[in-house]
Design goal:
This protein is α/β, with parallel strands linked by helices and about 325 residues long. It is about 35% helix and about 20% strand. The chain folds into two domains: about 5-160, no CATH class; about 160-330, Rossmann fold, CATH 3.40.50.720. Helix 1 packs antiparallel against helix 4 (about 110-120), helix 5 packs parallel to helix 11 (about 295-310) and helix 7 runs parallel beside helix 8.
């Protein structure tokens, strides 16, 4: 399943193809307790249909009204809400927050197909727009690229900037892959048991038919990578963890009861792992919500991923490290 940002842009392209005028509004800056974060998007059709969100519902009505009355900026411009007391009263901003939007007319734009294709291929792309002319320039996202407003230029980063490597092709990993895709993760699922991979399919996820420890190394695990082992087979899960706990991954977890997790830590201590590295392991994995079914377990893991990711120091946006050609040649696939 693709991210919500992808679905917003895909819907905008469909509306353009059908002959509608479409605007894209992006949150660029917030103050106070604004309900949506910078980078949040909404696409608006000329008859008032909207997909996505730039607030908790406070200002969408105003955007819809502007769209139906052809009052949104063209080719591009800024909209601010909540900066004045009368805004809070008019738009119903009970949270007391304020936000600044960049709004652009997509009619006649040519960048959408290229960005959508990059997102389908799990590549991150930087888009820079001249705020005066609306002209757009695309380039591969670089580690120091950050979205924002830069001297008459609006910059957006499209595509996955986080990755999740799941060890094990089973029902739990299917449910987790679906959720993680919507959360903006590029999902990779590794399982050396090719019979398991034959029936495993989640749209937008990449499958790797290789040994788990090799996968952790080959994908170029970095600070934007999470690794979760869910096979219930110590031979496979432990292989992945031996590499993952030494890596720069921001999150490393393994499925299992508290008893099994304690035994796993004892096994890991027999190898060349420091106590601090073993301490990084999240097991039992996920938030404690009394989960039992594969779907419930996936929700618990995804919730903890969000909790940990949102507590990290803010990092510069970076493109996810691509899966190497050697992986594809060795049997990896990217089901569409």
């Amino acid at each position: 399943m693709y991210s919500l940002d992808y679905e917003i842009l895909r819907q905008a392209q469909e509306w353009l193809d059908a002959g509608h005028r479409v605007h894209l509004a992006t949150v660029i800056r917030t103050w106070g307790s604004a309900p949506r974060q910078p980078g949040s998007m909404a696409a608006l059709r000329d008859d008032g249909l909207l997909v996505g969100s730039v607030s908790g519902g406070c200002i969408e009505d105003d955007l819809i009204q502007r769209a139906t009355h052809a009052e949104l900026p063209a080719p591009a411009g800024w909209l601010s809400y909540g900066l004045r007391q009368e805004d809070i009263i008019q738009y119903g901003l009970p949270c007391g927050g304020s936000l600044k939007l960049f709004c652009e007319d997509l009619t006649g734009s040519s960048w959408l197909p290229e960005v959508l294709e990059a997102m389908r291929q799990h590549r991150s792309i930087t888009r820079e727009v001249d705020t005066g002319t609306g002209q757009c320039r695309l380039s591969p996202a670089q580690p120091d690229d950050q979205p924002g407003e830069y001297s008459h230029v609006f910059r957006a980063i499209h595509g996955p900037q986080w990755r999740l490597l799941i060890i094990g092709a089973n029902q739990t990993s299917k449910a987790l892959a679906d959720i993680a895709g919507m959360l903006g993760f590029h999902v990779l699922v590794c399982d050396p048991r090719k019979d398991f991979l034959q029936t495993w399919h989640v749209q937008g996820a990449t499958t790797l038919a290789m040994m788990p420890d090799d996968a952790v190394v080959e994908i170029g695990t970095d600070e934007r990578t999470a690794i979760v082992a869910v096979t219930h087979d110590p031979k496979l899960d432990d292989m992945a963890l031996l590499e993952a706990l030494k890596s720069r991954a921001f999150y490393v977890g393994a499925l299992g009861s508290k008893r099994n997790s304690d035994k796993r830590r004892e096994r890991l201590a027999l190898f060349e792992l420091s106590p601090d590295e073993i301490e990084r392991l999240r097991g039992p994995v996920g938030l404690s919500i009394s989960s039992r079914t594969p779907a419930e377990i996936a929700v618990a893991i995804a919730a903890e991923l969000i909790q940990v990711r949102n507590s990290l120091p803010q990092m510069a946006c970076s493109s996810a490290s691509p899966v190497s050609h050697s992986l594809l040649e060795s049997g990896a696939s990217s089901p569409q």
